[in-house]
Design goal:
Blueprint: H1 2-40, H2 47-88, H3 91-95, E1 109-116, E2 126-133, E3 138-142, H4 149-157, E4 164-169, E5 172-173, H5 179-183, E6 186-189, H6 200-204, H7 213-222, H8 226-230, H9 249-261, E7 267-271, H10 279-293, E8 297-301, E9 313-318, E10 321-326, H11 328-334, H12 337-345
Parallel strand pairs: 3-8, 3-9, 6-7, 7-8
Antiparallel strand pairs: 1-2, 1-4, 4-5, 9-10
Length: about 350
């Protein structure tokens, strides 16, 4: 969607520039032609009438320019309507209707012989993945790019539906549940956290209008973000800019962690949450994540193996299949795929 918007903006800019230049050239041509006709006496036109004709033409071209400028606006509006229609037609919104809701989630997750293939893909993204995650357990997923790590998280969230097999939350098949009620108990910290145009407080409390200031403050403290917020001139009323542009990557991640903490989730999904951070920022974010993960079912996707040593279990994915499962020490001692990955990274 971002790429389509950029393409549309470029086309709008080119269209506006070419329209303006074309109409200005046409105006100059009209003025030159009228002057030539007047000078040669081909038609009885006085100098004053030439100026008058030029003024009329300027008025006409100005109105025409305004009309032409409406075309890009209309195209942008149609693109917006199309995007809204795509969201409204998403199966998640429709398939949840009338299904059983959940009042509470304890955090047990089960993948039962899950197989998934993306539309029009030639091969499966996941093949016969079975895993039982106990409440409060931290499970990390590692493996090469394209092995299916992020697909697992999207299946748990319900953004993707298994091609075969089942995904269960607290023993209930997610295919039978209203996933909107499940997601109230889930928080996600992605690789690139999305912050909205607005204040830090608004971003932390997003979607929870009744939060108290004390609860927001405690979330910022636990996320190692209180210091950076206090250092800002306007405190948590500071506007972060579009997509958090006025904050560094580490600061954005800590605000995102505070937003996850304030919801007190039972299930936590971390997708490369410390990727591309400098060592100092990574240390602060990792400490905050440790507080966030405590007592919660946590699924972690990571490429840097040094960030997942404390995980209760590590699942190694390769070629869409689970090839190893175990503790870090057990997998290293086994000398298999995980041990080779760790040696390659020098972790």
């Amino acid at each position: 969607m971002r790429s389509a918007g950029l393409t549309l903006d470029v086309l709008n800019g080119r269209f506006a520039s070419m329209s303006w230049v074309g109409l200005q050239l046409l105006g100059v041509l009209c003025l030159v032609l009228a002057a030539w006709v007047s000078l040669t006496g081909l038609v009885a036109v006085s100098a004053g009438e030439v100026v008058q004709i030029s003024s009329y033409f300027a008025l006409l071209t100005g109105a025409l320019t305004n009309l032409l400028m409406l075309l890009p606006v209309g195209a942008r509006g149609l693109e917006s309507v199309r995007s809204i229609a795509e969201v409204m037609q998403e199966p998640d919104l429709e398939e949840n209707e009338g299904r059983a809701g959940v009042a509470e989630v304890h955090g047990r997750l089960t993948l039962d012989a899950v197989r998934f293939r993306y539309p029009e893909a030639a091969r499966d993204a996941l093949v016969d993945v079975s895993l039982d995650v106990r409440p409060g357990e931290t499970v990390a997923f590692v493996g090469p790019s394209g092995s299916g790590k992020s697909t697992v998280l999207n299946l748990v969230l319900g953004f993707l539906r298994p091609t075969a097999g089942r995904v269960l939350v607290d023993g209930q098949d997610t295919a039978d549940l209203d996933l909107r009620t499940v997601r109230r108990w889930v928080s996600v910290v992605p690789q690139e956290s999305v912050l909205f145009e607005g204040s830090i407080r608004d971003n932390v409390a997003y979607g929870l209008p009744r939060l108290t200031d004390e609860r927001i403050r405690q979330a910022l403290v636990d996320a190692n973000a209180a210091g950076l917020v206090d250092a800002l001139p306007d405190g948590w009323d500071t506007v972060v800019g579009e997509r958090g542009a006025r904050l560094s990557g580490g600061q954005r991640q800590r605000i995102a962690i505070a937003r996850a903490l304030v919801r007190d989730p039972r299930i936590l999904l971390l997708d490369e949450a410390t990727f591309a951070l400098d060592p100092e920022s990574e240390a602060a974010v990792q400490e905050a994540l440790g507080r966030l993960m405590r007592g919660r079912t946590t699924l972690v996707v990571a490429h840097r193996l040094s960030t997942i040593r404390s995980a209760d279990r590590i699942v190694v994915l390769d070629d869409a299949r689970v090839v190893e499962v175990g503790t870090r020490d057990g997998l290293v001692a086994a000398g298999g795929r995980y041990a080779r990955l760790e040696r390659a990274q020098g972790a």
